[in-house]
Amino acid sequence: MSIEYKINHPITADQFISLLADSTLGERRPIQDRDCMMGMISNSNLTVSAWDSEKLVGISRCMTDFHYACYLSDLAVSEKYQKLGIGKRLQILTQDQLGPRCKLILIAAPAANSYYEQIGFSNNPRCWVLERDASIHS
């Protein structure tokens, strides 16, 4: 199996949804909301993707200024392709696109904490999240 990595290669909403459904990230993303998923992939300004032929098997999806901060919104690898080094390679290739002072920042699911530590991330307890109350904004 030969995995090909691509920078900012076009990805359809269906490919993105399929990958997330095939990974553990699908449980925590609104994969039933196609418009939201299309917006997530089309408005990212840095994607690094992993392909097995024509099949999307991994993604690093980011929002960044390329100089100071890069928010890694999704790092997903299809379960069938996990433990092959694809996630670590996606992270390295993402960093290669960034300036030398740019930090890679993410919010990890509790089950993924040990993975991120294993590939070189350090834990920072200063993250805050403000959820929107959908009933107020409807």
UniProtKB/TrEMBL annotation:
It comes from the Bacteria. InterPro entries: Acetyltransferase_Butenolide, Acyl_CoA_acyltransferase, GNAT_dom. Residues 3-138 form the N-acetyltransferase domain. One of its GO terms (molecular function) is acyltransferase activity, transferring groups other than amino-acyl groups. This is N-acetyltransferase domain-containing protein. It comes from Aliiglaciecola lipolytica E3.
